[in-house]
Structure prediction request, 636 residues.
Amino acid sequence: MRRILHFLVVALIGAAVLPAVAGAGATDRLPGDSLDVLVSLDRPATPALTRRLTALGTDAWTAKHIPVASLQLPAARLDTLRRLAGVEGVYPNKQLRYFSDRQVAAQNPKLPPLPGQAPPGGFGAALPIPNLGVTGKGVTVAVVDSGVDFTHPDLAEAMVANVKVTPLGDGGPAPLEGLPNSDTSSGHGTHVAGDVAGRGTASGGTYKGSAPGASLVGIGTGEGLTVHTKGVLQSYDWILANHQKYGIRAINNSYGGSFEAFDPNAPINKATKAAADAGIVVLFAQGNDGDEMTMNSSAMAPWVIAVAAATQQAGMTDFSSGGLDADVLEPGRFEANDLAGDPRRPLRMGLYHPSIMALGEYVVGARAAGTLLPVLGTRHDLALPAGDQARYTIMSGTSMASPEAAGIVALLLEANPTLRPTDVKRVLQITGKPVPDVPFFRQGYGNADPARGVELARRLVGLSPDEVNRVLDEQQAARDAEILAGINHPLRTTAWWNSPVGSDEPAAEGDVADDAHKITVEEGTGRLKVTNAGFSLPYLPDPAHAIVVRDASGKEVGRSQPRLPGGSGTTILDLDLTKLSGVAWGVWTVSVTEGGLFPAGFFGADEATVAATFARPQAPDPVASLLPEPPTAPGG
Prediction:
């Protein structure tokens, strides 16, 4: 088998202070300008730390059950915040997006059906689940989303709690509980809730969720079509305070952001780890951007189940986001981030792939009354029987796949309530059905198989936790070995961070970027693959760019096709080195040539400022540990 090098070039990656936050200290900001920041801590805030944070800014909030906080901070006090004992990182309060029909339409447009005509591939609710003797009864799934309309006939019976998290009151959440309908502007969360546990009442049982006997907790944390990270953190803090009261065993999350290298200190990762440690299974939508290296950054954590979208025929959708083709890290590069319960241990698979697939195309779900998404979905809803159009809407996206999988999790937990989150993830992966000719970084372990999953869960009933670990580790290792045998496995993968600023002058043809990366390519290496995620921003086009590789003599050995401005996605240069002659082995140069870059200062930061923020006084930076050594600038 040929040896492979696989390198990953990433922009806008988190560290002790993200560039988007660090830029606040640049000259285009006044010292008194306010920043909306999130703070990762080494433990839930003590009263003393809460007082210090409150003294630094306004609208301070500290979670009681997860190690995070938020506040409005004057730009001049950013460095003081970073140096507080117990602070592990400072991050922007990012706007996240739902991975539902609106995004699919932008990335994967399909012709609208004629009235009464089904969309391509047909439509339906959960894929047929055989009579397994379980429906999710006794298991509660929390839906962190835009809210849930529990006045819908399909959902009323499933409701055990409905909460709206708001930013009112001393900087913290003022959760409004006991609401019949918390999904008043979006409709997204109502559809998601129906995908989990819809009873099918309004359709005579036709459009049920995958766990029609499960209970639901709705947590409305966003309005319209977006949600902010702070609202997610407040929702998780509420869940951890109430999960025993309501029997919450799983959390569905059908939202997220763009690709970033995994950062265990990112605030959402802190929240999901706290939930997993409390025995709650966490599921996240994989994302809808289609290309390699586009997966949702919140879905990467090893304790999270990342869900890709399958078609109505159990194939692979073209819009479901991909991870990394060569999904490994250099030896010694990830050990510092290993945490208890990491289910990758059998053969140490990488992080950048979905766990499983579930139905995510043309899914029929509950329609909230008078909200945005049903209106957006009417192009498909005309295919529904006339009597169902008032109560149901058809949507596509990994936003639908994740709750479909959450319902299957509820089936497993009814079959065996003693399963822990790591057990549930391994059961799903071990029993998944691979889709032929689809790479692992797109499908993970394949389609979730409820029948095989429930069968395995039942076989584990009565075993000790150690014995369950032994059985699942053996079977997971067998699946991993099977997958690895079909992959031309890489020698190593390295991540770099590019500064998202530069000259506003177009790059001349053949120019090499100042932040070019040096790599060692040994004689006999068969393949070098460079994947660049770009730096897509909401409502702004990416700059044009291309990847250039030069060998040890400085000769250009490869150049990608230029990626034109607009949209999202990746640029890839995949070189078969066995077909190149006369190359000079040794230290090669990888660069991303960019023309028409945003002016320096667009993000409020220059390279020197961003570079300085990667060093943290309290401890070595976990993300910087993935950089080539020694990093001399954000680009390494």
Notes: Residues 149 and 181 are 4 Å apart (CA to CA). The first helix runs from residue 19 to 22. The chain has 16 helices and 26 strands.
